[in-house]
Specification:
This protein is α+β, with helices and mostly antiparallel strands. Helices cover about 20% and strands about 35% of the residues. The strands form two sheets. A five-stranded antiparallel β-sheet has the order 1-2-3-6-7, with helices on both faces. The protein has a three-stranded antiparallel β-sheet with strand order 4-5-8. It is globular.
């Protein structure tokens, strides 16, 4: 948090399927796996391109979180399908060791492309929709604390959740 790249708006990817895009996606996958993240946006590794990856498998540590299919999403566009908002805890690799309660829309449609240029068009709800919004915010220079409405619910993991081992998302 505080790095200037994280505050900038990312540029659209011009050449889908290019070796450069495939290398970026490979680097992002490696970083996300190394940090046990739920998602990652290109600006988080210093690249101002409109690329996000995300995916969550069933995890006994998060029994209430539904599975989110692993997705590479290039040049995403989001359309909110409800005005309903739900608050929940979020963390971020760019805000390490902290959590905050963030309001997010509960249902959306996302479109874009995979790294090969194949179109993606999905509807997401709940945790899936939260992850997509969180990652796509990075493409517009927004970190989750900027979305929070109550900073009394923002703090260090060890203070908020004593004794729990949490990973940054």
């Amino acid at each position: 948090m505080g790095h200037p790249v994280l505050r900038e708006k990312s540029k659209p990817v011009e050449k889908l399927g290019s070796p450069e895009l495939k290398q970026l996606v490979a680097d992002m996958k490696e970083t996300m796996a190394a940090k046990n993240g739920a998602g990652l946006a290109a600006p988080q590794i210093g690249v101002l391109q409109r690329v996000v990856i995300f995916g969550v498998s069933r995890n006994p540590r998060y029994p209430d979180a539904e599975e989110v299919p692993f997705t590479v999403l290039v040049n995403p566009k989001l359309q909110m399908l409800t005005r309903e908002v739900e608050e929940d805890w979020e963390g971020c690799l760019s805000v390490p060791g902290m959590r905050g309660v963030v309001p997010r829309y509960t249902k959306l449609r996302y479109t874009g492309f995979d790294e090969d240029g194949n179109p993606i068009d999905r509807v997401a709800e709940g945790f899936h929709a939260r992850v997509v919004q969180h990652e796509c915010d990075h493409l517009d220079g927004i970190l989750y604390p900027q979305r929070m409405t109550d900073l009394s619910r923002f703090g260090f993991n060890e203070e908020l959740f004593p004794g729990e081992e949490l990973v940054d998302e």
